[in-house]
Amino acid sequence: MDASPAPPHHRLTLREWLRLTRLFSLTAAAVPVLLGTALAAGRFRFLPLPFLAMLLASLLIQAATNMFNEYYDAVRGLDASDSVGISGSIVSGRLEARAVLRSALWTYAAAALLSLYLVFEGGALVLGLGLLAALAGYLYSGGPRPIAYTPFGELTVFLSMGPLIVTLSYAVQTHQLSALPLLASLPIGFLVAAILLANSIRDLEGDALGGRRTLAILVGRRRAIRLYRSLLWASYAVVAALVLARQISPWALLSLASAALALRLYREVAGSSGRIALNRVVRGTSGLHLALGLLLTLGVLLGQLRL
Predict the structure, then answer these.
(1) Residues 262-271 pLDDT 10s
(2) How many folded domains does the chain comprise?
(3) Torsion of the alpha carbons at 225, 227, 169 and 290, rounded to the nearest 10
(4) Greatest CA span in the chain, whole angstroms?
């Protein structure tokens, strides 16, 4: 009886495509769009079709980035069948690497089509910001020197999935730039950087063996944990500062309701050992980003209703 594994498939099923998108991570792409749009609604301007196009384009760029990450990590030998936090489509033999790369390119192409509509609606300002977002998504894992393999990964995701996407979502609605979306984006930018930092702490040993030079490797585990904790509390400090400065409504303090989860993660990140336990911290940080982001967005909207 032949017990050899089945050959990898060339075609992508919907189920496998959804695995490759890493659905749990897509909230990091949705939250900044919701916040930027909510801030724009304060100017009594809400355009439903540009909002939906922006939301879908952001989700597709994040999904494509995850696929590029899966492809490049696999072909460079950084992923294995027991790796945590990946779809495992390539290393498990379910798909050929080329099929994953094609899927990433098609997903990017779909985002590009939506972006053409957004440029038509928003003009050169939206074009410039959109190109920056798309470029950051590719260079994170692709190119001769991927950002994900350097100490600048956290800074890149902070900028691209915090200030950049929030400001772009605001500009899609208003066709203007403003300091407010930039400032209001800082809490969710800090938390998306914390997601990546927790991921790097989890993979510290494997990344070092694979030749990566992530921030966690550069500063060491103890300092990385301190930085992770600082990012959690900096998010709440910025919200409080913006409320005290009367830049956003006191309703934004609703985001403090997520502080219990932040406190739990603050404790768990140092006490967890092993990739499985630390992967729970990664997932929990993603959940915190979603909770704080949605509550902050709700607070902005309630403040605009002047309740």
Answers:
(1) 999 999 998 7
(2) 1
(3) 30
(4) 73
